[in-house]
Write a structure and sequence with these properties.
The chain is an all-beta fold. 2% of the residues lie in helices and 28% in strands.
């Protein structure tokens, strides 16, 4: 296996924990196709919202077949279904792709921690290729940097991130920066000033510093400082 970091860099994913189980971390929404560098949904492809949110991300499918714009989709431990229907984990909206086209299965070996993957055509009409070899309906092993052609037009680069190969691990001295919208200890907020009513006996231009006026405010223009007048 060649060094992934020296071959392919997936824009927009730097510094993110690919094995995080929490869906609250800053990870792209799994209901969308990731468009590298643009951070937006691809207009012709998407990933369905499924219970696989809690499965670790261990790889990606990467493509520029649509219009040259880079797209990528996360692959998770377990089965990852591909097809044109929105019920798939990875939805590819292209005319020559069947509603239920293929399944990519990924397993992490308990004994070695190594990732193994296989791909299977589940009954498509237009078939698929793995590294230029046409596949039947059996399971076929696939590996990091294989090229999968699905339907007549979509070419997908398979990227498997086996962290043990790159000495990636959780760092004890990692110090996250608190997001601006997080306010665990909200600062004291002063009570907003009530707007003054124009031409009121209590408005600042007419306020008498050392006098008293009745609550009606009548004839307050005639009062001098220090006077009290009751009507």
């Amino acid at each position: 296996m060649s060094d992934l970091q020296s071959v392919t860099v997936v824009p927009g994913m730097e510094g993110r924990d690919l094995y995080a189980r929490s869906v609250t971390q800053h990870i792209p929404d799994p209901s969308e196709t990731m468009v590298a560098g643009l951070q937006q949904k691809g207009p012709k492809s998407s990933v369905s919202d499924s219970d696989k949110k809690l499965s670790p991300i261990v790889g990606f499918l990467y493509s520029i077949s649509r219009d040259g714009t880079p797209e990528y989709w996360p692959l998770r431990i377990g089965t990852n279904t591909l097809g044109r229907s929105k019920d798939n984990d990875i939805q590819l909206k292209e005319q020559t792709i069947s509603d239920k086209h293929a399944v990519i299965s990924i397993k992490k070996m308990k004994s070695t921690g190594r990732l193994i993957a296989s791909i299977r055509d589940v009954g498509s009409k237009t078939g698929m290729f793995l590294n230029d070899e046409e596949l039947d309906y059996d399971n076929h092993s696939c590996k990091h940097e294989d090229i999968i052609k699905i339907g007549d037009s979509y070419e997908l680069l398979l990227l498997l991130v086996d962290v043990s190969n790159y000495n990636l691990k959780v760092r004890d001295n990692f110090m996250p920066i608190q997001e601006e919208d997080e306010q665990p200890n909200a600062a004291f907020q002063p009570v907003p000033q009530v707007p003054e009513v124009p031409d009121s006996p209590y408005s600042r231009p007419h306020r008498i510093e050392d006098g008293t006026i009745d609550m009606s405010g009548a004839n307050y223009h005639d009062l001098e400082g220090g006077e009290t007048k009751l009507l």
